[in-house]
Amino acid sequence: xxxxxxxxxxxxxxxxxxxxxxxxxxxxxxxxxxxxxxxxxxxxxxxxxxxxxxxxxxxxxxxxxxxxxxxxxxxxxxxxxxxxxxxxxxxxx
Length: 93
Prior knowledge:
The protein is α+β, with helices and mostly antiparallel strands. It has helices at residues 17-35, 62-79; strands at 2-12, 38-43, 50-59, 83-92. It is elongated. The termini are close together. The model has no long low-confidence stretch (mean pLDDT 92).
């Protein structure tokens, strides 16, 4: 079993925590449904224009788990032009 974790640092176009919460919840729910990953906001919860989201993929082989998280990052860039991915870190756990 292989476990990979991705941490994505995002800049959001939101002026309030309520707006941010809507954007983050939407991204997390769609990522869970589309890629079958675990997902959560893991840092910067009190800042309205920034977020750090964490995603975890588990697979029977290393390539599949890493590729899933790479595809998730690409999907986020394509699907959400209102969100800027500043950095992405994928590592094996």
